[in-house]
Amino acid sequence: MTGSTAARDTDVRTHRAAALKERIYVAFTALAVIITLRVHDAHPSTTGAFSTLAVAVAATVCAVYLADLLSHMVVHAHLPARPEHRRMVASTLGAGAVAMPPLGCIALAGTGVYGTSTGLLVAMVLTVATLTAIGVLAVRRLDLPPRHRVAVLGAEALVGVVVLALGLLAHR
Fold this sequence. Notes:
With 172 residues, the chain is an all-alpha fold. It has one domain. 84% of the residues lie in helices and 0% in strands.
């Protein structure tokens, strides 16, 4: 591998890592909001649940973008060049995509397919599945023995269960 190829490979890996991190942040935020909506209101309105989740995700995406921009400026001591900035924006907006399945579940509740509480439950399950998929994507290209990959995914699952438990405990 030449020096420029290695540098490009490092850039691609760094970008992928940042994109995975951003998706995890947004997914955990969505999960926390969904848990809160489900626990605090026995009969939540579909509109209220949808708008609360959408606003929380939008705020998180904005915070992720700002953190990405500021960290780039701290590391490189200048604003990102246009191509890098476009990549940052695309990555940040892509992180918001993890909220589409839970928002879709709540939207389906709005059409009467099922109740809002059921929509929030399905949204919770889909968000946990999304986090699992993110973990699988993170470890699939690693040069690790299978047992280490399973350990990493197990640790992610454990953290997810802890977050769920803390969310439920905090809202009792």
